[in-house]
Amino acid sequence: MYIFKTIIIFTLLNITSLTYGQNDSFGIKVIYKMTYQPDSTDTKRLSEYMELVSNSKESIFRSTKQAFVDSAKAKQADYDIRANVTPFTYSIVKSYKENTIAYYNVIAKLAGEIKKYTEKSSAFSWDVQDEIKDINGYNCQKALVNFGNRFWEAWFTVDIPISDGPYKFNGLPGLIVAIHDSKNCWDFELVSIQKTGSSDLDLSFLTPFTELEKKSYYKELSYYNVNQVQINEAAGLLGFPDPKMRDIMIKRVQEMNKKNNNWIELIP
């Protein structure tokens, strides 16, 4: 992590020499390392790199692998599918003007449409603490919040005056450098930050979509996760010449779902 420190500080000096929010000529890309525990009954932890791309109007948060795939598809370029497989296929778009958080994802992975739900940014009621500490060269301040049925501890820096952070987190006086929940099941830590060549965000790949209420989205997602073999089979996307293979696949999906029980938001 320390190998990025000099790069981060150098870039920070360039970024803070401009007045963010009053200058639309640049954007920034923030890379976070996300460490997570997918199964609450198993201490095994996995990690993936995520990116936050922001300008003065909005931001998008997604996996760096998914960002690569989205870019390749937009350019109609070939790419290695196996090298860019990720369970995190969502995109989260925060509108600073509208104070909204839009969540986009494809539920039916084989040939489904994009589903979207929208929340207000005011979902975060931060309790800013007096505690200060240095994190990778940044002067950071502590803040606490309850969100998604988890209790979170965040560290933000006003040296980067962007009221944003990883996943849906936002609303603090500066960029969130690190955040984790009280059980250390989900952890985000800033790796690097740089200016981008353009402040415009191309979000055209997120259309068309079907908009749902948040509760309806997770109800549909849960149903698909349990019944995906039967759903894809009925749609003609899967076929099983041997009934035993079908039973094995259904059982495997059920086992995977049992282990995928520790979502970042604990939806009732």
Question: Which terms would index this structure?
Answer:
single chain, alpha+beta, outer membrane lipoprotein receptor (LolB), chain A, 4 helices, disordered N terminus
Quick summary:
With 268 residues, the chain is of the alpha+beta class.
Helix/strand order: HEEEHEEEEEEEEEHH
CATH topology of the largest domain: outer membrane lipoprotein receptor (LolB), chain A
What count of helical segments does DSSP give?
Answer: 4
Low-confidence stretches: 1-25
- In terms of structural class, how would the helical and strand content be classed? alpha+beta
For the largest beta-sheet, the strand count, sense and barrel status come to:
12 strands, mixed
Distance between the termini: 36 Å
| CATH architectural grouping of the largest domain | Clam
Q: Beta-strand level of the residues, as a percent range? A: 25-35%
CATH class assignment of the largest domain? Mainly Beta
Percent in helix: 10-25%
- In total, the number of domains comes to 2
**What is the radius of gyration?**
20 Å
Strand order of the largest sheet: 7-8-9-10-11-1-2-3-4-5-6-12
Mean pLDDT level? 89
Based on Cα principal axes, name the global outline. globular
Number of strands: 12
Notes on the protein architecture:
The protein is α+β, with helices and mostly antiparallel strands. It is 23% helix and 34% strand. Strands 7-8-9-10-11-1-2-3-4-5-6-12 form a 12-stranded mixed sheet. Helix 3 (214-234) packs antiparallel against helix 4. The two termini are 36 Å apart.
